[in-house]
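WARN no homologs supplied; continuing
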Amino acid sequence: MSKAMERLIEPAKPRRPLLPDPWSLTAVLISLVVLGPIVAVATLAFAPSENIWPHLMATTLPRYLGNTLVLMGGVGLLAALIGTGAAWLIARYEFPLSRWFEWLLLLPLAVPAYVGAYALVDLLEYAGPVQTGLRAVFGWESARDYWFPEIRSLGFAIIVLAAALYPYVYLLARAAFHEQSGASEEVAMSLGQGALKRLWRIGLPLARPAVAAGTAIVMMEAVNDFGTVDYFAVQTLTTGIFTTWLEGNNAGGAAQIACVVLVLVIVLVTLEKISRRKARFFNQGGRHRPVARKPLRGGWAVFALLGCAVPFTVGFVLPAGTILSHALSRAALWRDPELYRAAWNTVTVGAIAAVLTVLGGLLLVYGVKLSGRALPRLLQPITTIGYAAPGAVLAVGILLPLAVFDNALADFVLGLTGFDPGLILTGSSFALVLAYFVRFFAIGQGAADAALERVSPSLGMAARSLGRQHKQVLREVYMPLIRGSVGSALLLVFVDCVKELPATLLLRPFNYDTLATRVHDQASLENLSDAAPAAIFIIVVSLFAVIFLARANRAHF
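OK structure emitted
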């Protein structure tokens, strides 16, 4: 048969359409919205209107960078020690209240670090109850009669942040220790290995990827923090962005500092991924017997109890108790209309951002699954960088380009109609919603990706064979099956929006308060009593998310 005849008989290969399908286009557009602020920061940093990089290098940048590195390292190390140690005690031993501490150790997640900082200073400052009690007991009359550590310092900032953030390490390490096989533990015991040697040689190597992932999250949150370090007068890269932009009126310099933060975060994420790739451990077999918890008695039981009680007390009981005592001391504070206006702003902006973030993540993941093109698949993992980028960095990348567009839009409307609409986008909460969308997009995307992966593709194929379109398949088949994961993601994003401070401070419209900014503004004026009711609202809302998280992970507890 001739080649010409073979070509006639051979079925024609389907041609890929030149124009992208709507789902691919949607995925690409959502990815560009998420990545836009990061690109804007880089553009502003490399092409500033006034280049102050040499001045920064010669003056403040080394101090900002040095303090940030010490803060990251100190918080990461302390949180890793606390979280891993508590997880090991809970996973391996039975002692008084151990079942309660399984979930109590998660509660510090409900207290933002800046609230913990305000409470710690209130307790330990010169006029606070601790020093006042010491002077009364020992007869000291002034600060010259005794030594007390400086509260507003880098060291105490590390302690406060580690106490607030260690649950990230605890949660992941606890799951990793729980999943380890009891056989390896029993073999080590039969060879005479003590508890510490079993932890060092078996437990930690197997849990290393989980501990590294949790520690990386803690260090990124430490870089993002502004309220704690600002209150403790610690100059970091994040405070440098605020100082250079708001006090120095130099947006280009702020973008350059923001790029340094981005480089730090990217290096941290890269190192974490490399460490996980080089340390892979697998269970040999689909079924394994978990490690049996060993009862502790006497001094060891007391030690284990204190090992769990101290971080829980420092991370939750002391800050929450201090704030609650201030909130209950003046009942008139609860009747302040500004408090409820800030609560309303927080709920509305947080709810809108949560819905848009989870919906955007769902559409992106679904669009990538339907698309056969390389660009959406390439962009999907990159969009998670928003979660690693601190809020102050995103604020630089959002507000400046948005302000340029907003002014151009206002000028266009004025020239066309003679009516000046003012700043439509930057003068409203739009920029705030966009910042939350970018910052927490990874949560919505991750939840959608994990949920859709659990649904059999045959269900979607069956619906398509019955004439359903892709949007109908998503609405009628997938959504009923993944609504639990979607609801969890909505809750987590909403709570993160409630607690977010740096981006909110920089992007909120004039005379627009949220609960987080109200707490910060009042506490900055040394008025903790006025800040207490808003802080209580934040803690209560966050508690719902933590309790939900504990229930979702009860299979590990």
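DSSP finds 25 helices and two strands in the chain.
OK
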